[in-house]
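I hope you will forgive my troubling you with a question about protein structure. The full record is reproduced below for your convenience:

——
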Amino acid sequence: MPHPIMFSDDDPFLARIREMALAFPTATEQVAHGRPTFRCPKMFGMYGGGEKNIEKGVPGRRFDQSILFVADPAEREALLADERFFLPAYVGAFGWVGLILDDDTDWTEVGELLDASFREVAPKRTIAELDAHNRHDP
């Protein structure tokens, strides 16, 4: 049985995430587990998720308007100490962190987090392509 779709294509936060994530070289979007994921070919971002359940039997909170990303290992603990971030279910054990999106979201920060996540998983030649493109931007 396929997962139910847990997002709306007309979500303005998703539109911004799509624009940012799909700007990376070779980036594609694929729906997995009912949510948009962004890949290069490995997954570097997912729109929406839930908090890891710390206490057995108590469901974790769900954040449909959030971005999940692979955190820079040196910054992971500091990010999780900030109340805007959460340890996501299923992927948190593999270095992923979630950021809750709202009207006060700093989109420059989101772009930096997606860039760092992309660099954690992208092939070296794709990162070189990104860096070459960035050197030529004004």
The chain has a mean pLDDT of 94. The radius of gyration is 15 Å. Residues 107-121 form the longest helix (15 residues). Residues 37 and 46 are 4 Å apart (CA to CA).
